Amino acid sequence: LRDAIVKPALYARYIDDGKVLWLAGADEMAKFLAHCNNQRPGIIQFTHESSSRGKSVPFMDTVFSVDAAGQIAFELYQKPSDSGVIMNFTSALPSSMKTAVATEQFRRARRLSSSESALANSKTKIRNLLQRNDFPSTVINLAEAASTRPS
User: Fold this and answer.
1) Closest CA to 22 of 62, 63, 57, 46
2) Residues 66-80: pLDDT tens digits?
3) Cα(49)–Cα(26) distance, integer angstroms
4) pTM over 0.85
5) Confidence category of residue 52, pLDDT binned at 50, 70, 90
6) DSSP 107
């Protein structure tokens, strides 16, 4: 990445999964991919998925997109195969743990959202997740409010 002539607008990596946000055009992207694959031939082989402006690409639990103005946006992502199962509220665990799980889910939504509209979408996903796991509305509302306070 250091000696690439044209660099990505965004680079993120987690273990063996990487994400590059590329704004410099398809030809430059092909050159960049070739550059990356020439660093350790036979050992590391990079592949890529591409998306047009306005479309999104998931990375871990975040989905990235670029709007028509070239602004990077991101929010919480849930895979289509996500079972939606977390700790059920009826489980035999301390109430404090249940509240903490809900609060941290909302904090996660806040961390993974680039704008107020993205945060609203992310919070809706968290609310739905908690409801599917039998969390009462009162606990959900308290957790959402607590998530705005420093941890």
Assistant:
1) 57
2) 777 778 888 999 888
3) 12
4) no
5) low
6) H
Where helices occur in the chain by DSSP H, the ranges are 26-37, 95-111, 116-132, 137-146
Amino acid 47 reads: T
Distance CA 98, CA 105 (A): 11
Amino acid in position 99: T
- The Cα–Cα gap between 7 and 111 comes to 25
Tokens of 135: 């969390």
Beta bridge partners, 74, equal: 64
Here the tokens at position 53 are 């402006």
- Residues 91, 96, 97, CA angle at the centre, nearest 5°? 55
* CA 3/CA 86 separation, integer angstroms: 43
Count H helices and E strands in the chain, helices first: 4, 5
Distance of CA 18 to the CA centre of its chain: 12
**Residue 23: CA atoms inside 13 Å, Cβ hemisphere, count?**
13
CA atoms within 13 A on the CB side of 104: 8
